[in-house]
Amino acid sequence: MQSYTLLAPAKINLLLEVIGDRPDGYHELVMVMQSVDLADEVKITPLAGDRIIVRCDHPMVPTDSSNLAYKAARLMQQQYPGHGGVEIQIQKRIPIGAGLAGGSTDGAATLVGLDLMWNLGLTQAELEYYAAQLGSDVPFCVGGGTKLALGRGEELSPLADLDQCYAVLAKYDSLSVSTPWAYQTYRTRFADCYANSPEAQEVRRRQGPSVPLLKAMQAQDYVQIGQCLHNDLERAVLDELPRVARLKETFLKHQPLGCLMSGSGPTVFALTQTQAEAQALAQQVQAAIADADLQCWVTQFCRFGISVLEPV
Ligand code: ATP
Predict the structure, then answer these.
(1) For 147, what's the count of Cα atoms within 13 Å in the CB-facing half-sphere?
(2) In the chain, where does DSSP find H-type helix?
(3) Average of per-residue pLDDT values in the chain
(4) Cα distance between residue 120 and residue 40, in whole Å
(5) How far is the CA of 92 from the centre of ligand 1 (A)?
(6) Could you tell me if the CB of 145 is within 6 A of ligand 1?
(7) Ligand 1: residue whose CA is nearest its atom 27
(8) Which positions ≥6 away from 213 have C-beta within 8 Å?
């Protein structure tokens, strides 16, 4: 049995709309998700026995059974017993609790890596089916690229690739957001915005902010795309975290194509059409904020999710 090293990219949300409640307790969502080339490296190595061991070079990442990579390995062992144990080594490059699906992409990489290592020949649809049992963002992370995600995030449709778009990501190192907290805060403050019957939810989907964004994406109109970015959770999270609100204001002063908080935050991203513009923007924002706690990454949109870096 061979070891595999996989690249596990982060995602940003070009759109996140909370439509309403679902009978299963999750939120009904409309999301436009985009992979970017900031990625963790996940190495999968066979182990004798049935043990699952997770190692990570970042001290804040749990390595016990709460790690999404561990959960993915356990799920695969349950579904396909008899293939033995696995050691999963994660090199963390995606910031934690950032709204960039860092844990989800490690879980997706473990599914893809075990499919290869155990020679299972699973289809992308089968991998996404298992991924949905691990978390709402995990199915997207398997195939990545540019996708529309409905339901609780697991109903995926591919969208035309957005070539030549760069995202400057910015996050305060000391600030993380728990996804359940962000949704709970939104729910408490904006319950009147919820559409809960299937009919009302369909009307919301047809009339919501995804309509102009998808039109702009279809036309590859980057100026319009920048203006149509939308995240419902911003209203709740930016009110609670004024530093993040100020970060967004600072980005906007430098007139990027558009600027938005990703997912449940607190990462804020701004779009540009060239790498040089992205690098200049990152420098301008770091100079304006002048806080050593602020980290910036210049990333490019990418067309893929989990990919094999090298069979070892
Ligand atoms: P999302 O955008 O999918 O909501 P996030 O990017 O906001 O997620 P993560 O980086 O996935 O957040 O981390 C959230 C929590 O998940 C962490 O505080 C950590 O305890 C836990 N976690 C479990 N597995 C991992 C992992 N492989 N990497 C990072 N965090 C993990």
Answers:
(1) 23
(2) 68-79, 102-117, 124-132, 138-143, 179-190, 198-207, 210-218, 222-228, 233-240, 242-253, 275-289
(3) 96
(4) 24
(5) 11
(6) no
(7) 103
(8) 14, 15, 32, 225, 228, 229, 230
> How many Cβ atoms from other residues are within 10 Å of residue 292's Cβ?
8
Amino acid found at 172: Y
Q: Is the pLDDT of residue 23 over 80?
A: yes
**Residues 289, 247 contacting (CB under 8 angstroms):** yes
Beta bridge partners of 33: 13, 147
The residue whose CA is least distant from atom 14 of ligand 1 is 97
- Centre a 10 Å sphere on the Cβ of residue 224 and count the other Cβ atoms it contains: 16
68 CA to centre of ligand 1 in angstroms: 8
What is the value of pTM for the model shown?
0.95
Distance of alpha carbon 96 from alpha carbon 250, whole angstroms? 23
Q: What is the dihedral of CA 283, 57, 124, 31, to 10 degrees?
A: -40
Whole-number Å distance between alpha carbons of 16 and 197: 19
| CB proximity list for 288: less than 8 A, separation 6 or greater | 250, 253
Q: What is the tens place of the pLDDT at every residue in 170-218? A: 999 999 999 999 999 999 999 888 988 999 999 999 999 999 999 999 9
What are the binding residues? Answer: 95-105
ipTM: 0.94
* Confidence grade of residue 311 (pLDDT, cut at 50, 70, 90): low
- Among the listed ranges 3-17, 115-129, 184-198, 291-305, which one has the minimum average pLDDT value? 184-198
pLDDT of residue 81: 96
Mean pLDDT of 119-123: 98
